Amino acid sequence: MPLLENPVFAAELPQEPAQVTALFAVSQPLERDCIRLYAHSQPCVTAGVYATAEALLQALREGICPQVVAVDVLLPETAFQTLLKSVQKLPGSPSPKILLLTPFPETAAARGALHKLDRYTRLVRPYSMETLFGTVYALGADERSTRIYHIQRLCGAALQSLKADPALTGTVYLKRILLCALLYEQELPLSRLYQIAGEERGIDEKAVTAALSRLSGALCRKHTEGYVALCRRCGCASQTPLSNGRLIRALVEELRTRL
Fold first, then answer.
1. Distance from CA of residue 35 to its chain's centroid?
2. Which residues of 60-82 are buried (b: 16+ CB within 10 A; e: fewer)?
3. Cα–Cα distance between 127 and 148 in angstroms, integer?
């Protein structure tokens, strides 16, 4: 099957999702370190991380204009309330969205205190950095950018689970193809997807085809559980590399179940 019998859906390579600036005021040093480290892997999110409400307020006074302010409810009460009021009074429109980072409310008193903050979006600990940044991005970006951001992360995670080498051009092209296929609903043949994948670097269809074939061979040799599952989805033996078309189609079908 050199071409997809039922072409995946695509239109044109989408623009990168919008940038979101987020400021975090977090009481625990370890969590601050985790946020800073994870932010390096998130090119669409610029993160400023502070230990106190006062430090975050100073950043706002110095002219930083975030789309999101994430605040730890375990900060000292007076500073916490002052920060919330100050964010709401910032000039300009729209005001930054506020995300409250809260512990699980184990007592009636804690539940009552959090109930008073119902008008804010809340994220209850424990949460992963992926969940935290996904929530922050969804608050700060529009619906289209949020969808692109979410699909990019899905595609990246899927390729990582297959142990696809990010340095290979085939991995870059495959990620672009998957992104297009998952975002749009206009049928295009596989050859057009190759063209879209290579456009940014001025690479022709034959070179993209060859790079994807090399990647498929590398994935076959690594023989991860994910690759075996893709072969099973296609009804193919996992000892032989999947054709480009089958690899793309199997991945698109799998990722659609996660959207």
1. 15
2. beeeeebbbbbbbbebeeebbee
3. 22
State the DSSP string of 91-141: SSSSPPEEEEEE----SHHHHHHHHTTTTSEEEESS--HHHHHHHHHHHHS
**Burial level of 118, CB count in 10 A (0-12/13-18/19+)?**
exposed
Q: CB–CB of 155/182 below 8 Å?
A: yes
pLDDT-based confidence at residue 8 (cuts at 50, 70, 90): very low
Lookup: tokens for 229: 């599952």
Q: How far is it, in rounded angstroms, from Cα 29 to Cα 71?
A: 14
Residue bearing tokens 């959090």: 114
Find, among 83, 89, 35, the residue nearest to 59 by Cα.
Answer: 83
Q: How confident is the model at residue 5 (pLDDT cuts 50, 70, 90)?
A: very low
Per-residue pLDDT at 183: 83
Q: Confidence class of residue 1 from pLDDT cuts 50, 70 and 90?
A: very low
